[in-house]
């Protein structure tokens, strides 16, 4: 029986996956989040002394020293990711991918107590942690069977990120400049006439405590950082790879 080839479509870039090495670029949208681990009260922090807070004269803060303080990220804000794709073919099903790039994003941290930021006038409803990451992810890509001009895949690996954001002001909440992440996700390769477009959704989970061991400088009330035991970053990224 004769089958109409047009019903299934005409395959594009039929030798693309046979290349040992190829390159491209990526654009993406990300959202950044924190997972917080809190002390039951500020007085449990190993560096706590009452004298640290007296000079700030924030009555609401002094009255809540022995109360439960909680922080959380409010509504997620979209950020932007750009990078370079380097792909090494291992075999017909597996690729090794290195995608260095830059990511920009913000996290709005809300507390259940008033926020006094020395860089702002009056009381703030939230504190913004701004991040500019140098991304260095190394990923394994597992590809399913190609379906004419489409191919689903899974990814997994590790990433090292360095936060190069600098504001020139003393931060209310200090985080470490670098951290390792575990990354996992899935995507779909679309083989177009002249290039391959890959749509990918990726989740990144920060390893280890990213809360800085150094407290804010003398201009900032250390209460907000001392209420936290640790924090971890969570990043969700929707990427579009052009290869």
Description:
This protein is mostly beta strands. The protein has a single domain, classed as Porin (Beta Barrel). It contains four helices and twelve strands; from the N terminus they run H-E-H-H-E-E-E-E-E-E-E-E-E-E-H-E. Strands 1, 2, 3, 4, 5, 8, 9, 10, 11 and 12 form a ten-stranded antiparallel sheet that branches. A two-stranded antiparallel ribbon has the order 6-7.
Concise summary:
The chain is 7% helix and 51% strand. The protein is mainly beta and 243 residues long. Strands 1, 2, 3, 4, 5, 8, 9, 10, 11 and 12 form a ten-stranded antiparallel β-sheet that branches.
Question: Which helices and strands appear, and what pairs or packs with what?
Answer:
Layout: H1 5-8, E1 21-38, H2 51-54, H3 59-62, E2 71-73, E3 78-89, E4 94-98, E5 101-111, E6 115-116, E7 123-124, E8 127-143, E9 150-163, E10 178-191, E11 196-206, H4 223-226, E12 228-242
Antiparallel strand pairs: 1-3, 1-12, 2-5, 3-4, 3-5, 4-8, 5-8, 6-7, 8-9, 9-10, 10-11, 11-12
Features:
Porin; 243 residues; 4 helices; mainly beta; elongated; ten-stranded antiparallel β-sheet
Strand/helix succession: HEHHEEEEEEEEEEHE
Write down the domain tally.
1
CATH class: Mainly Beta
> What is the percent of helical residues?
under 10%
Largest sheet, strands/sense/barrel: 10 strands, antiparallel
Number of helices: 4
């Amino acid at each position: 029986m004769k089958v109409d080839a047009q019903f299934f479509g005409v395959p594009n870039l039929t030798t693309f996956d046979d290349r040992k090495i190829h390159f491209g670029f990526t654009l993406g949208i990300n959202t950044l989040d924190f997972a917080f681990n809190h002390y039951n009260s500020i007085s449990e922090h190993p560096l706590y002394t009452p004298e640290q807070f007296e000079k700030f004269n924030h009555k609401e803060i002094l009255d809540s020293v022995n109360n439960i303080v909680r922080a959380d990220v409010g509504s997620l804000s979209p950020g932007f990711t750009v990078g370079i794709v380097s792909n090494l073919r291992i075999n017909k099903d597996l690729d090794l991918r290195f995608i260095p790039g830059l990511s920009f994003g913000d996290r709005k941290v809300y507390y259940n107590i008033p926020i006094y930021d020395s860089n702002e006038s009056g009381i703030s409803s939230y504190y913004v942690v701004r991040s500019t990451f140098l991304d260095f992810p190394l990923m394994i890509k597992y590809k399913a069977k190609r379906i004419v001009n489409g191919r689903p895949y899974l990814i997994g690996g590790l990433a090292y990120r360095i936060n190069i954001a600098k504001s020139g002001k003393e931060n209310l909440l200090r985080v470490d400049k670098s951290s390792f992440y575990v990354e996992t996700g899935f995507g779909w390769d679309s083989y177009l006439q002249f290039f391959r477009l890959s749509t990918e959704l990726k989740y990144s989970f920060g390893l280890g405590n990213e809360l800085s061991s150094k407290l804010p400088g003398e201009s900032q009330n250390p209460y907000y950082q001392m209420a936290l035991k640790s924090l971890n970053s969570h990043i969700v990224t929707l990427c579009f790879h052009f290869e």
